[in-house]
Design a protein that fits this description.
- This protein is mainly alpha-helical and 206 residues long.
- 60% of the residues lie in helices and 2% in strands.
- It has one domain: Glycolipid transfer protein, GLTP.
- One of its GO terms (cellular component) is cytosol.
């Protein structure tokens, strides 16, 4: 029982300090994404790597949290200019600096890696986690990683638990777990689509 990551009758998603479903998106303001809630939701996601249960995922988690810190440092330094992620980026780039913006680029890649892996795994009940994460890594982070970093992340892919051992840690009721994960992943995917389109614009590069 001790290794279960959820409350009685609930799911792992219930334990998150902030869910991606709770991140405000202002559709009337060019899909502006609230900075504080987004960063809290991204931090919450990293607890999933603890559930995966291998120290091999420590570098993956550390990488994400490091990028969250870069963005939050900018938010704390210029709060009036950083209420949403898009304004944070535009205002940082005006200062000829790009620490937080680069952090957001890498954070989005890490979130997309996780989102694609879990979405693929949920959609294919016979696929093991290691295959889903390896496929997602190849399509997201791997093309941007150096030859020194790739083996570290590859080790994490190989250290994924068996599918049956992972999902039982997320909740007793498999249907409830799947429903909660799908809603969480759908919200995350929507945020990723918005941010990738924004960061891909020429004026938001450095």
């Amino acid at each position: 029982m001790a290794d279960k990551a959820y409350p009685a009758g609930g799911t792992f998603i219930d334990t998150l300090k902030k869910s991606f479903t709770d991140v405000p998106v202002d559709k009337e303001n060019d899909n502006a994404i609230s900075t504080t809630e987004f960063l809290e939701a991204a931090e919450s996601l990293t607890t999933l790597f603890d559930v995966l249960g291998s120290v091999a995922f420590t570098p993956v988690k550390s990488d994400m949290l490091g990028n969250v810190k870069k963005i939050r440092d900018r938010q704390l330094a210029a709060p009036a200019e950083s209420a949403n992620l898009q304004d944070l980026v535009k205002n940082e780039l005006k200062t000829k600096k790009h620490t937080a913006t680069e952090g957001l680029v890498w954070l989005v890649r890490g979130l997309e890696f996780t989102s694609i892996a879990l979405t693929e795994n949920l959609g294919n009940s016979s696929e093991e986690l290691s295959a889903s994460f390896r496929s997602a890594y190849g399509n997201t982070l791997k093309p941007h990683h150096s030859f020194m970093v790739k083996p570290i992340f590859s080790a994490a892919m190989s250290a994924c638990p068996y599918r049956k051992d992972f999902y039982i840690k997320l909740g007793d009721d498999d249907a409830k777990v799947q429903e909660a994960l799908k809603a969480w992943l759908a919200a995350l995917t929507n945020l990723i689509v918005i941010l990738k389109a924004f960061l891909d614009k020429k004026e938001n590069k450095w």
